[in-house]
């Protein structure tokens, strides 16, 4: 199935440079990674050739991102789990013998408060991949309430072994 028309928010503009669509909004500009001619009419964008489902979803996410921004918040829970920012790097202390150093991409903005980190970006996929990568260093424990949690995430604790 292919899609010809995609709706965009009123504060977002779509234009072409050498057959490559760009989205421009109050929160940034995103270049799409496919060749297509576009024609914008009010809040609709017409594509030639038609978009695949995946391309249409990526286009909609990009349009929302440059219009509103995406946010993800994570919390560090556990004794001895800390994070601080040095330049464009996060330095995590997560109970390992060495610190975990993670570079922050230029397209992701961060706010750091003690054990809480808020990420914002116009790029949905880059944001979720980055946060998932960080979370992979200490998944939430199901036996103790420790690890890296999303803001509203709840973990049901399992009962330990009875002896």
UniProtKB/TrEMBL annotation:
One of its GO terms (molecular function) is rRNA binding. The keyword Transmembrane does not apply. One of its GO terms (cellular component) is ribosome. It comes from the Eukaryota. GO terms for biological process: translation. InterPro entries: Ribosomal_uL6-like_a/b-dom_sf (IPR036789), Ribosomal_uL6_bac-type (IPR019906). Keywords: Mitochondrion, Ribonucleoprotein, Ribosomal protein. SUPFAM superfamilies: Ribosomal protein L6. This is Ribosomal protein L6.
């Amino acid at each position: 199935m292919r899609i010809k028309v995609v709706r965009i928010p009123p504060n977002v503009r779509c234009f072409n440079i050498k057959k490559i669509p760009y989205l421009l909004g109050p929160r940034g500009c995103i270049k799409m990674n496919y060749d297509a001619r576009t024609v914008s009419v009010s809040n609709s964008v017409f594509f030639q050739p038609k978009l695949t489902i995946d391309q249409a979803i990526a286009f909609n996410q990009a349009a929302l991102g440059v219009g509103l921004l995406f946010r993800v918040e994570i919390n560090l829970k556990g004794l001895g789990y800390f994070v601080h920012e040095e330049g464009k790097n996060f330095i995590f202390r997560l109970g390992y013998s060495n610190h975990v150093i993670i570079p922050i991409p230029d397209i992701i903005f961060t706010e750091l408060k003690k054990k809480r980190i808020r990420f914002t970006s116009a790029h949905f996929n880059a944001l979720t991949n980055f946060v998932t990568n960080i979370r992979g260093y200490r998944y939430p424990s199901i036996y103790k309430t420790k690890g890296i949690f999303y803001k509203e995430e709840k973990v049901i604790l399992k009962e330990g072994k009875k002896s």
